[in-house]
Structures are given as structure tokens and as C-alpha cells.
Amino acid sequence: MADASPPTLTETHAEADAAAARAERMATRRKWLIRLAAAVAAVAILWALWYFLIGRNQVSTDNAYVNAEVAQVTPLISAQAIEVAVSDTQPVKRGDVLVRLDDANARIAVAQAEADLAEARRRFRQASATSTALSAQVDARRADIAQARAQIATAQADFEKARVDLQRREALAPSGAVSGDELTSARKSYAAAKAALDLARAGVQQAESTRGAAIGDLAANEALIHGSTIDTDPGVLAARAKLDAAKLDIDRTIIRAPIDGIVTKRQVQIGQRVTQGSPIMTIVPLAQVYVDANFKERQLRRVKVGMPATVTADLYGGNVTYHGRVAGLAGGTGSSFALIPAQNATGNWIKVVQRVPVRIALDPKELAEHPLRVGLSTEVEIDLSGN
């Protein structure tokens, strides 16, 4: 077997070039690794600086949604809708007419209330006139008493005369100077005079009783009108209150917008009979919307009312930023106010990080430039270093 031939000059140069290439690649790789390590270190330093200077003073969440204090429009009377002046998505101003209701029944009620008020005024005038008549009756009964007492005086004189005549005749009767018929006639005259005196005394008592009844009637009637005028009488005031209520029902047949906003969820049609207290539409005040941001419980250690916040909405993206402040924190977690709150008394309990709603009030000028709608998704960031 022949021995291997020694390497040629060409092969020697090739091996040297390969070794040089490997060395160059190793140097290049080492250089890129150093650069990568330097870049990672720079990023770590920058992140640490950002965190200690900015990041630790901020908390953020994307679990945030636009909300508003919407106005429920409900009729205050039951009637038929004869005109519906708005539709869904239509902007309205406070005081704009939304719906007109049939006012026929309300106008009849006003007419009835006006008649009742006139009747109450007439009753007061009648009571005032009755007091005058009763006062005159009291004076008349006083005169009757004086007349009855005068009759007593006359009857008393007649009685005394009859008594004296009877005593004289009874004294002369034993001597026969007075006949039996004359004595009987004297006795009859005495009895008649005594009966007339008793009748006169009864007449005085009757006149006094009649005067007492007249005084009672006058007092009772005066109690009804004492301290009152035709405008302050309780009966008149009650009738006027009913008239005001009837007129108010007429005003309520025109339903107006309670706030500025956008009409949504309109549920009334022309000819439909609406029921008192049943919602017929909702008005959303777009100029007064706010954001409810649901932060994790561990993010709220330093959050306080009044801290500045920035909000971005998915509707506009990152090109539009809203500025606001923390208006308040909810009184409990979202799960505690759920329809079926969680019960953690069972043995298979698993801890879940809770979220607490935080209300963010937005700048009205920014809202006017870029309106938001209720329910839109947003991202909220609170600056913990702000006041």
C-alpha cells in the first residue's frame, strides 16, 4: 500500500483561508453578542429608569367603558299619543317637544275643577250671609225674651188681683154676703190667672232657649268663616288646588326633553296609549359622559379622588387622548353587586383578583370635539403622582 502524499501548497493555503474565515466569523459573532448584550442592558436600564421615574407612578387598565347618567322619559299621565316629534339617534335640547298626548280628558277635568271652585266661592258667600241672618235672629230672640218678661209682669198682676178677690170672697162666704156662684167665679178667675202666669214664665224659658239655639247656630257658622276671606277659605283653597292639578295635567300632555342629548330606545308610536310611569324613550347626555374603569384591587393602593387620568378610546385610537380626573371609587367590587354575588363559603373556593369601578370625569371641551357613546371600550391611565 502506497504512503499518503504530503499536502500540496494549494491545500495548505486553503486550510489557512478556512481557519481565517472561522476566526473572522467567531470575532463577528462575538462582536454581535457584545452588541446584543449592550442593547439588552441599555433596554433594561431605560426600563428601570422609566419605572422608577414614571412607571411606578402610573396604573392603567383596558377594562374601562364609557357610561352616562341617562334620562328616562316617562309620562306623568295616562293618555293616547297624538304626535311623536323625535326618533332614535336624534339630538334634542332641553325643553324640546318629544311627544304630545290627547288632552281632551284633562280639559274636561279643568272645566269640572273650575265649576267646583265657583261652587266653593258661592258656599263661602252664603255662609257669610247666613252669619248676618243668624245675628239678626239672635237680636230678635232677645226682643222675644223682653216681651215674654213683660207678659210675666202682666200675668203676675192679674194673678195677684185674682188671689186678693178670691181671699175676700172666701172671707165673706160664711156670712152669706157672697153667693156660691160668685165664689166659684172668683176661684175660676184665680185658676185662670195662675195658669196665665205659668204660661208667661214658660214663654220666657222658651224665648231664652230659642235665643240660645240662635247663638249656637251663629257661633257654628262663624267658626266656618272666622279669619277667612273668599280667597283664604279652606274649601276655596281645596277647590283651587284641584283646578291647579287639572291645569298641570294639561301641561303634562306635552312631554319635553329634560336634558340635552341623543334620543335612544324610543318605544312610543302615534295612536299608542301610554301609561303613567312607563318609560317611552331614553336621552343620553353625550356632553356629560364619563368612564367607569375597573382596576384590580392591588392597583388602588395609592389612587385618590382628584388624581389626573388620561383616556384613549378604541373609537379614535391613540390619536385622540382625553384628559380627566378621578371622580370617585365605587363602594364595592363589581362582583359584590352582581345579580348573583359570589359565595366563598364553600370548600372549593379559589381566590380571584377583584376589580373595583373607578369613575373618571372627562374634559367637556374634549368631549365636544370628539364625542363618545355609552358602552365604548377605553383604556385608562391614572397618574399617581398628581394631586
Could you give the topology of this structure?
Layout: H1 9-53, E1 58-67, E2 71-73, E3 79-84, E4 91-92, E5 97-101, H2 104-172, H3 180-225, H4 234-251, E6 254-256, E7 261-264, E8 273-274, E9 281-284, E10 290-296, E11 308-313, E12 322-329, E13 355-362, H5 364-369, E14 377-383
Overview of the molecule:
- With 387 residues, the chain is α+β, with helices and mostly antiparallel strands.
- It folds into 4 domains: 38 residues; 110 residues, Elongation Factor Tu (Ef-tu), domain 3, CATH 2.40.30; 61 residues, Beta Barrel (OB fold (Dihydrolipoamide Acetyltransferase, E2P)); 144 residues, Helix Hairpins (Orthogonal Bundle).
- It has 5 helices and 14 strands.
- The protein has a 6-stranded antiparallel β-barrel with strand order 1-10-13-12-11-14. Strands 2-9-7-4 form a 4-stranded antiparallel sheet, with no helix packed on it.
- α2 packs antiparallel against α3 and α2 runs antiparallel to α4.
- The longest helix has 69 residues.
- The chain is rod-shaped, with a radius of gyration of 54 Å.
- The chain starts with 8 loop residues before the first helix and ends with a strand.
- The model has no long low-confidence stretch (mean pLDDT 81).
